[in-house]
Structures are given as structure tokens and as C-alpha cells.
Amino acid sequence: MSARPGALPLRHVLTLPATGPAVRVARETTERVLAEWGTSRRHPMVDPALLILSELVANSVQHAACLSPNITVIYAAGKDTFAFAVHDRHPYRPALFAAVTGAGGGGLGTVMELTLGAGGTAVVRGDADGRGKSIWITLPL
């Protein structure tokens, strides 16, 4: 993976209400965006990406909807990289690597195991005003 998400040439943004159907819509949009960008549904990284995205969107719906009526999914890609972020306006910033070491985590544990197992990276970036965050996942293609 050679590029940071901000440097990747392909971009797409999806904003959804923080409700249960957001998970399905985000998955379907991810499949469509990847296909438009030339990544086959059969690519071995697509299923892990869809599961990671689903977990992150579900977490935002479950834990952030009280303060964040909308969730934004940001997609970026380049020749050998697919990155996406799930953004909400809840200030809590989860400790991603604690989810791997067994200090709780639930769905975040799955997110981190899949991300790291695929040779990807994960990072939480807080909003400048401290009232929200994005969890960025970067995966090799």
C-alpha cells in the first residue's frame, strides 16, 4: 500500500441516516463503487472490506446515533489500494488496538483482525472540533 487515503485519485462519498438500513445501503454502495473502479466482486479483498465496513457502520448506528443523526462513508482508491472511512459526530474515539488484545471490542475486534490479517491499516481520526471521528481502513488490492 503506497498511498495515504487523501492522495488516492478515486473518491466517493455516501451520507446516510444513522438507522439500521444504513448497513445494507453502505454494503451495496461499496460493491457498486468497487465495480465502477474496476475491482471485481470476486477479488479476495472485497469480502473482508464489506464485513469491515458493515461492522463499522453498525457500530455507528448502535453507539453514535444519539448524537449523530447521519453517518458518512468516504471511499478512496488507487491502483493498488482501497481505503474507506466511516464518520459520525459522536466524540468517543475507540482504541482500535485494544480490541485486538482482548480488552473488549466486539465488532471492533473483528474489524482489526480482518484489517491486520489482510495487511491493511486502521486509524481513528478525530474531527477538528473534537465532536466526531472517522475510522479509516486502508487495504491492499
UniProtKB/TrEMBL annotation:
Keyword Nucleotide-binding: yes
A GO term, aspect molecular function: ATP binding
Ranges annotated as spanning the membrane: none
Keywords: ATP-binding, Nucleotide-binding
InterPro entries: Anti-sigma-factor_SerPK, HATPase_C_sf
Nucleotide-binding keyword on record: yes
Residues making up the signal peptide according to the UniProt record: none
Name of the protein in its database record: ATP-binding protein
Organism encoding this protein: Streptomyces atrovirens
Source lineage: Bacteria, Bacillati, Actinomycetota, Actinomycetes, Kitasatosporales
